[in-house]
Amino acid sequence: MDWEQLARLGFTSDCLVEYSIITVATASPVSPLAQQSICYSLYQLQDQLDCGHTVLRVRDESE
Predict the structure, then answer these.
(1) What are the extents of the domains in the chain?
(2) What is the pLDDT at residue 38?
(3) Sequence-ordered alpha helix ranges (H) in the chain
(4) Of 5, 45, 4, 41, which Cα lies nearest the Cα of 24?
(5) Residue 55 neighbours by CB under 8 Å, 6+ apart
(6) By C-alpha distance, which of 34, 7, 9 is closest to 23?
């Protein structure tokens, strides 16, 4: 299922970014550098979609 299909199901863009970051943070084995790169890309996407409140909700996963 892609993001467009999830959006049609009622998931907001900030929820999709949040869940993606949590998934990346808890996935193994993913190198720390890969996690950082993926999360950076998700934050860039977040900025484009104007869902900046995600940063606070994934504070623990971002550390």
Answers:
(1) 3-62
(2) 82
(3) 3-8, 13-26, 32-49, 54-57, 59-62
(4) 41
(5) 43, 46, 62
(6) 34
Rounded (10°) CA dihedral 31, 43, 51, 59? 50
* pTM (whole model) above 0.70: no
How distant, in Å, are the alpha carbons of 1, 4, 7, 23, 37 from that of 58? 23, 22, 20, 11, 16
At residue 58, the 3 state secondary structure works out as: coil
Q: Which residue has the tokens 């720390």?
A: 32
Segment 4-63, tens digit of pLDDT: 777 778 777 777 777 887 888 887 787 888 888 887 887 787 777 766 666 556 666 655
Instruction: Return the axis-axis angle of helices 13-26 and 32-49, rounded to nearest 10°.
Output: 180
DSSP letter at 2 equals: -
